[in-house]
Amino acid sequence: MNSSSIALWAFIGSAAIAPAAALPSYDDVTCFLFKICPQLCQKVTTVENFDVEAYASAKWYIHQQAAVGYLPTSRNFCTTAEYTVRDRPTLLGYTIDVLNSDQNANGDARAGNLCAYIPDPSIPSKLAVAPCFLPCFAAGPYWVVDYDEGEGYALISGGQPVYVGENGKCKGGTGVNNSGLWIFSRSQTRNQTLIDNVRQIALDAGFDLSVLNDVDQSSCSSGSGW
User: Fold this and answer.
1) Cβ-contact 118, 95 below 8 angstroms
2) CA distances from 168 to 38, 45, 56, 64 (A)
3) Would you call 35 helix, strand, or coil by DSSP?
4) Residue 84 CB partners (closer than 8 Å, separation 6+)
5) 122-129 contacts at long range (C-beta below 8 A, 24 or more positions apart)
């Protein structure tokens, strides 16, 4: 029996003999077994007085990002995001058009159209994104954790991280919704000082930085084809 199995049985055994008042909670069990520990993760706050029109006014170039189901590290080349605030919502209620693009190492490019909306107008920096054919309730969180138009950067999270990672910091999942961490820049040219500053912002906000991988923005060509 390995050490993990011994620890698991010890945990179960202690629960079995403990008084009812001392039984571990559901959160304690999921944290122990699956490292899903929202109670241990720093609560993420987002940008106050967020101006979505300014945010959507120009293209964003991604310089670091976490691998998720639709963005494997093999496509960490020339990744961009563009947003257009719609004059009127779609039939499903989306208010923002999204155009994402990336490439692989061979320069094979793809582009994909998505839709976004703001679930709670009182918190405009907490958006949700999905394929445009899905109803709004199926959209995944897209949170603007920090943003400075003058400095030309944004820090984006796919919602509140709940998995405990390195050094007690937390990370999101690796699927589609509730996943992802991105460092955006208005410039395609890499500014390492700016990236390091945004990484520190993310660290201070409680994010596990080990999930972030570099995106190569050199030798980029245009193309589409998701």
Assistant:
1) yes
2) 12, 18, 34, 21
3) coil
4) 56, 96, 97, 99
5) 123/46, 124/50, 124/52, 125/46, 125/47, 125/48, 125/50, 126/46, 127/52, 127/96, 129/98
Question: pLDDT tens across 142-201, in order?
Answer: 999 999 999 999 999 999 999 999 889 999 999 999 999 999 999 999 999 999 999 999
Amino acid symbol at 95 = T
pLDDT at residue 206 greater than cutoff 90: yes
Which amino acid is it at 226?
W
Tokens, residue 5: 């199995």
What are the contacts of 80-89 at 24+ separation with CB within 8 A? 81/184, 82/56, 83/52, 83/55, 83/56, 83/116, 84/56, 85/52, 85/53, 85/56, 89/117
Residue 122 CA neighbour count, 13 Å, CB half: 0
How far, in Å, are 101, 105, 109, 134, 206 from residue 225 at the CA level? 9, 16, 7, 20, 36
pLDDT at 12: 47
Written in H, E and C, the secondary structure of 141-193 is EEEEEEEECCCCEEEEECCCCCEECHHHCEECECCCCCECEEEEECCCCCCHH
Decide if 97 contacts 113 (C-beta within 8 A). yes
> 80-110: string of b/e by CB count within 10 Å (b at 16+)?
bbebeeeeeeeebebbbbbebbbbeeeeebe
Contact yes or no for 115/132 (Cβ under 8 A): yes
Contact 208, 161 (CB under 8 A): yes
